[in-house]
Structure formats: C-alpha cells, structure tokens
Amino acid sequence: MQLASIFLILALMATAQPQKPVTLTQTAFVARRAVVVFGITLLVYVVGRFFIDSFTQYWIATHPTPPPPPTHGFGILPKIAFPTNVGTPTSYKLELPPDRLAPPSDRAYVFFMPSQRASLLALSKAKQQAQDLGFLLEPQQITNDVYRWSHSQPLPATLDYNIVNGTFTQKLDWQSDPTFLQTNQLPNEDDAIAMTRTMLQAANLLGQDIATGSAKITYLKAGTSGYTPTVSLSESDFLQVDIFRTQILGTYDVVTDAPTHGAVRAIITGKQDTNLRFAMIDYKYLPVDYTSAFTYSIISPSEAFVDLRAGKGYTAAMSQSGTDVTIRTIRLGYYDSFTPQSYLQPIYILEGDGGYIGYVSAVSPTWEQQ
Question: What is the model's pLDDT at position 76?
C-alpha cells in the first residue's frame, strides 16, 4: 500500500508543469473578450429595456385604468327649461357615419350658477349700475323686478334693468333725430368688439368668461322697423356685436336661446360721442361659478337624436317650419339660458339642413328630475 502511494506521488510530480508567467498577448485577448461580453450584455439590456418599455406603454394605452365614476355631486338636477320652439319640423332624418355617433365621453361637467335674490340693497346696487351706464335720474318701476331709467339728452334713451339678476336692455332712440345717419363713421370689426368690451369693463360688467370669449359681427342697415341685416360694412348703418362665453375646457361651445345671440349683444353706431355710440345693449349675462362643478353621466349622440325626434329637445333655429330636417352634425356643448337657471348644463347641439339647430339635454335621465 505504501509502495503504491510512492509511485502515485512520483507520477504526479512527473506530470506537473511549472506555472508560466501571463504574457501581454494573453492579457489583450482576455480584455477583448471582456469588452465583447460587456458590449453584448449592454446591447441586450438596452434592446430588452426598449421592448419592455414599449410593451408597457402599449399595455397602458390599450388597457387604461378606468376613471372613477361620475360624482353627481349636485344630486338630481332640474330639467333644463328650454324656451318655446322657433319652428316645428315635419320629420327628422339622421345622416351621420357610425363613428360620429360614438359618445365623446361617458360624463360631462355641470357648473353651479349662483342665483341672485331680491334684497333691500338690490335697488341701490341697480341705481349705481345705472349711473355707470349714464342714467342719473330716479327710475320707474315696471314690474316687481324690472325698473326703467330714462334720459332725454343728447337723445332719448331708456334702460330696463332687472334688479334681481342684473340683466338689462338699453336703447337709444336714434330715430328721433332725422339727421342721425348722415354723418356716420363706423369702426372696423376689431374696434367694434374692443369698444363693446371696454364699455362693459368701465361699467364693471365684463366677466372673465366673456372677456376671453368669441365675438361675432353682423352688418345692419336702418329699416322702418329697426334694423335689417346687410352684407358689407360699406352698406351698413350699424354694427351688431355678439359676445359669447369662452368654450368650456377649451373645447365645448356655450350657446344661448338663439344660437346667433351672445350673452351680450350691442349695436354700435358711427358716432364719436360716447353717449351716442351704442344704439342698443342687450345684457343677458348670468354668472357661473366654475370652481363649483361635478361630473355627471351623459347620453350618447344617437340617444340625443332619438330624444329630439320624440319631442324632448328644443328647436333653436330653422329657416322654414313644417319641413323635413336631415341632421348632419351632433356635438356636445353647454346651454346658456337667458332665463336664470341653477346650473350650466351640457347639451347636444344638433345641426342640419335649412339652418336647423336643435338642443337636447345631455345629462342621463337618471340624474334629471322627471
């Protein structure tokens, strides 16, 4: 046994080689291998990370986290009180591709409109407002809520002011002066809009949502019954300025009882005298509290068309009553009523042939008073 062990040790000693020193060639070879391995590892990491990030983004885009349900924070809403239809179509037809009937969302905001109530100070505030508009004499009471101010110089004018909600109509009796239109220098469109906003600001009547809202100009010519539209500035005796509220969320138009009538309408003369500059001011602006808002479930565009055909909507404009109407567009908007209501609510605006424009409440019937 001991002899076998001796032979094994001798064999191992015979086969053992002395360790050679590492050469520069071997070092360079190992370094190159390390660089290659590192490069491949880095490439795999970058490409793998790219595909993982791309897949994550794709998954999030195709499987978004559902938003929380609408809040319905105001509870059951009062049904929108539309005015009387301006016309009655014989029938309705829908001409829209299916993709245009998809609802823009399952919800929309509803905004609170603070109501103003008559108080002991209401008349005093109204008198101050009348003074800001150039009416200094004591008013005459027309109804419980409406008072009329008048003055006779430089021309007769009246101001009918609702002391409860602050709306008013101011009129200048320019017809009483036969020479009124003889020296007329109308401003250009931009200046007319700026004049109107400046007048409102001077009277502390320029709300932020009409300061930034859109404006529309209509050319008017003097007629026997007041004003008639015309086609150009050169043919005009007056310029009509309609100012609308700014779009909700920068997307949704705010429309009034009459689609072409803004929350504020002014008819501008060509006179330089500030007391004669406005032939008429129709101020229908009612404040909205945009900080007090909740989301509500809404119906789809196709459901809105069904409601319109069932007589649940409002015809705001059409060229001729008793005709067939083909609806070409349906879009979400908001209804800015001339009559005080508690909320600024979403509606669908349906437009069709013959100048047809109709409104239908967009709020789900579940959340409307029946």
Answer: 97
- CA distances in angstroms from 59 to 50, 67, 234, listed in the order given: 14, 16, 61
pLDDT tens digits, one per residue of 195-236: 999 999 999 999 999 999 999 999 999 987 789 999 999 899
What are the φ and ψ backbone dihedral angles of 141, each rounded to 5 degrees? -80, 125
49 falls in which pLDDT band (50, 70, 90)?
Answer: confident
Q: What is the pLDDT of residue 8?
A: 45
pLDDT band for position 9 (cuts 50, 70, 90): very low
As a whole number of angstroms, the distance between CA 291 and CA 335 comes to 18
The predicted model scores a pTM of 0.81
**Which whole-number Å values give the CA distances from 113 to 32, 292, 300, in the listed order?**
75, 9, 25
The yes-or-no verdict on residue 248 having pLDDT over 90 is yes
- The CATH code belonging to domain 91-112+291-367 is 2.40.128
Phi, psi of 208 (to 5 degrees): -60, -35
| HSE value, Cβ hemisphere, 13 Å, CA-based, for 179 | 1
Please tell me the number of Cα atoms within 13 Å of 242 on its side-chain side. Answer: 15
